[in-house]
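ugh finaly. both done.
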Amino acid sequence: MSTVATSSGLSSFFSGKPLRFIAASILLVNGLFPAIWILFTSLKTEAELTVKPITWFPHTPTLANYMQAFSDQPLHLFLFNSFMVALLSTALTILISVLAAYALARLNLKYRALILSLIIAVSTFPLVTLLVPLFEIMRALNLLNSWTALILPYTVLSLPVCTLMLVSFFESIPRDLENAAMIDGCTRIGALFKVVVPLCAPGVFTAGILAFVNAWDEFLLALSFNSNPALRTLPVGIQLYQGEFAFPWPVISAALVVGIVPVAILIVIFQERVVSGLTAGGLKG
């Protein structure tokens, strides 16, 4: 009896609320703790940061690190470059992925399964293996030291995930809605953007957020393809705060917080659409 009770208790634990609560707590701590620690560090002085034992909360919070972050480096320029590159690459990604996903979902393609398999395979390539070929392509096209040198690769890197996500959404939309729109005079492209895309808005927003965040955070290509100081993006610019023998962690943390804020605001504004898009995509996929 005791063995049965123990096994039933374990099964109820692993399938019930306690385990879900523990898993959610681990994810919450793992996601929030680094961001909170960076925020606290950005509010500390250099002296307080090196004191022992470590102080978790800043005793004398200061905003001097934020002012120094903007004065030591052109942080506003880094933010502008990152925003424009991420915005333009996201727009291009959404446009191409919508057309590609619609073709895969609606057209009777002969090698549809093979195309989907290739898309999945391409999405698994490590970025470092693509660095040299992409660099050679950009150099041959004379695109180095320009926004285009980043926008095009970021678009290509985000396309597989965004396309696969949108295929499942488009497949859930009844064809009768498009047929009715085309009977009323719409072309197929018109029916796509006037009927299908609005109905799949959560999926489109989710794909857009993923593409934007990927472009905003990318470091390796931005460092390799742009040597022009006026075109540096935020991840590349933040590394300039450290010196040869000095690491001003409070100032670096302040710059990181400034870089996190735009993405956080974006997530908060579109939170409901992103959550519904991920949930619906998971159920349909």
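ok and the 2nd:
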Amino acid sequence: MTVKRAYETPVPAAASPEVDLGWMRVCLEEAALAAWRGEVPVGAVVVDPAGQKIGRGHNLRELLEDPTAHAEVLAMREAARHLDSWRLEGCTLYVTLEPCPMCAGAIVNGRVARVVYGCQDPKAGAAGSLWNLLADPRLNHRAAVEGGLLADESAALLKAFFKMRRGRR
């Protein structure tokens, strides 16, 4: 583990590729639940430093009529309740789609140590595609980021969902 600044939490070592793949598959299951509910298929899981799932979520913006009900935010809320703390230090957030600026802000504010995502978001990605908020040195926290894990599977869910949506119009 390395610490870049005194106020940052240590970044956990990357889990084994098999562990990361396993959690990303759970995210894909969450994303499929979102699609089944008519939501954009994005799924997320928060894992604590011991490797235990402490939060999960999928998009629920339409159902909850809440613009903040993104998969990442819902998973982090559940994780914070589990920990009885808003500080998700040492935790890893897995998500099928690169976080948007809102979710990246929540990740920074929640002190998430590591983010692993599936496919890039060329229209709203804030973890390297359009912006790189998770690595911005002007912010008080940065998260380690790894993208592209099961990217094809994540993108296929999104493409199928939007193809179906366009077919209904």
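summary for the 2nd one i guess: Residues 1-9 have pLDDT under 50 and may be disordered.
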